[in-house]
Description:
The protein folds into 3 domains: 4-109, Nucleotidyltransferase, domain 5, CATH 3.30.420; 114-208; 218-331, no CATH class. Helix 4 runs antiparallel to helix 6 and helix 10 (273-287) crosses helix 12 (310-331). It is 53% helix and 12% strand. With 341 residues, it is α/β, with parallel strands linked by helices. The chain is globular, with a radius of gyration of 25 Å. The longest helix has 34 residues, at 175-208. This is IS110 family transposase. Residues 212-293 form the Transposase IS116/IS110/IS902 C-terminal domain. It holds the Pfam family Transposase_20. Residues 7-147 form the Transposase IS110-like N-terminal domain.
Amino acid sequence: MSLIKAIGIDLAKSVFSIHGVDSHDKCQLRKTVKRNKLLAEVAKLPACIIGMEACSGAHYWAREFTKLGHEVRIMASKFVIPYRQNEKNDANDAEAICEAVSRPKTRFVTIKSDEQQAVLCLHRIRQGAIKDRTALINRLRGLLAEFGIVMPKGRYPAQHAISGILEDGENNLPMLARELLSDLWQDIKALNQQILKHDRKLYQLANQMNAARRLMTIPGVGEITATAVVATVSDAKDFDTSRAFSAWIGLVPRQYTTGGQVKLGRISKRGEKHIRTSLIHGARAVMANCKNKTDRTSLWVKDLIERRGFKRATVALAAKNARLIWALLRSKNEYQIDYVK
């Protein structure tokens, strides 16, 4: 068997397909192994390039394969699909991964450490709890509407009014419904406590991370945004420019250019939804408090609001903050108001 140059592994829960090629791109390895034998199989191979699609477990396997001396590259599935031949199956997917991993223009995902994934785990659990709380409030609102009781709009006004509605004995709410809706209200309060616990943990982590503390010097970047960025981006040098970083978050216009005619649309909304949402929320908070400020950013924001409207200005400020985040991660400096190069 010739020396293997690169292999592609199609990750799964129990059974993994492997496809390997030599320096002449000829197939030298094509087999299927079970999960408990994958590490042993890869350990037999000489040091080579290993390609995998970004999916659940990819970063774990990447760390394990790196310990064995291999160069591991993780890529998005959209870069693999064009290289798949014939029908979709595990063997053809592994072959396509092996082909895509050796292409010079394929972009790869930086391998995350255990600590980074632990922080992201906290973010995902917090997001899930917020989603569950919203669902419960909407459920409570809908069920009360069946009895002609309308809750106020907004999370805070709604939660403030729930106790009074359930304790009001003159609203003709049946006892069974009152008991069931009270249980829902207890679940909402439990989720409030759970989310508060997660927030406090994020604040604690943010103060322990040097990079996160630097990012929090940017107006509109708080503990949630800073910890999410640090846990997701291993090295800012993976992005050539600040615009590339902003595009990865999905804050640049979608482009459709042909025949020399440039057409820019709305933001692409690709990439990291959680970071993009946090940046936009932070930008909205900054804009709400910039009326009486005279620094360069506040003056720029106020002028932009007059010319383009509040929502477009919000996205523009979020994109600006994304570029500042990239710059601070690269330079390891702190944000300076009215900085002049």
